[in-house]
Amino acid sequence: MAINVGEGMTDEVGRQRGGWKSRARSSTRRERVTEVAIPRGGKGKEVAGSTSEAQDEPESQHEVVAEAQDVDEVNAEIEAEEKDEQPPPSPQKKNPRTTRRRNPPQVAPPPVTGYGGGPSDLSLLPSFGKHVAASLWRGECVGRYLKCMNNGKKVNDFDKPDSNLRWFWNVVDASGLRPLLKTNYNHVDWGLLTAFTKRWHPETGTFYLPISEMTITLDDVSCLLHIPINGKMLNHVGTACSMAEGKDMCEKYLNFNRDDCKQEFSKMKGAHIGFPKLEKIYHANLSQALEAENNQESDDEVGFYRECTIRAFLLYLIGATIFTNKSSQYVDVIFLTYLQDLSEVNTWNWGASRLAYLFNYLDAASRPKCGNHGGMYYGAFQKVRNALSC
For 46-84, what is each residue's pLDDT tens digit? Predict the structure, then answer.
């Protein structure tokens, strides 16, 4: 006799639970079908029966096969119903911040072909849109003043040796750099420098003035600074002096201890020597040179202290005048490369290197975001202003 396990169950077994249909009904149907398909006496203990039950065995086997087929069909129907009952995947919500409707793609601005009051043909000045003059036409950078880093006061206040110390001044005169001591200003006119940088154009390397175009030439450098404008060019552009190389050069050419040099490099964040420290190195070597000379020590030792004194002085001089940087706090050790042999200092083209250094800083100063400036030589702009006033 088949056991009816579905008695007492209602049709609400498959009601929804939280939006999902319960699978209790399909599982109940599976149990009902499988339990009905169990043949009589198919499992359990063997029980002796009558001959009539033995005669009904073939018929019961046919019934088992038919009922097994019915079970497969029912299982297939239940699986199909379960697939139908599964809810469709919920669509992903679109982020309103990334939709095209709220954030449309930016349209490229039309190409600029001219500026009101400025150049009408940009083939010669393609980067004029990034020039400070273009910002002024748009009403920007109205109160911009360029601060120039000037170390002239440091050079004027530098404690120089007596003029009768011939071993010192003879080498400085032979280097061709002594005139830099007389070309410094304690104060500069920021307004004058700001006005000239607004009229400088990097493409042509000239100032666009109301009268005509003007520029600074090598002849101006020679007349104003009186430094060499011929010879070998300084070739350290694009190369950097490592900390190890800087320590070696400072110890060999400045008599600067490596441990103290390491502390100074760490303070300056690179292979640089601050002006106060460089002045101390100069005075220390000068004192040792005079002391060794009074004690009548060997010529090699006296000569070593003398050369270190002169190198420290020349390094201070060029770092505070012709190669002033925007920090106005230190000088690069890389310039010691050109001071190794003091007899060949005048063979370097200091004037041309100074002019290229100035042009590089003028290019940077012609941009709106430039606030302070290095590498300026105030005397050159004074000359141009005097020419305009004539």
Answer: 444 444 444 444 455 555 555 556 656 666 776 666 655
What's the longest Cα–Cα distance across the chain? 149
Instruction: Retrieve residue 263's tokens.
Output: 């502390």
Cα dihedral value 300, 301, 306, 308, nearest 10: 110
pLDDT digits (tens, 9 = 90+) for 231-286: 998 887 656 688 888 899 999 999 999 999 999 999 988 899 999 999 999 999 99
Tokens at residue 85, please? 């009952």
Cβ pair 232, 217 in contact under 8 A: no
Q: Quick one: which of 285, 283, 263, 284 has its CA closest to 274?
A: 263
Tokens 């012609």 belong to which residue? 366
The model carries a pTM of 0.66
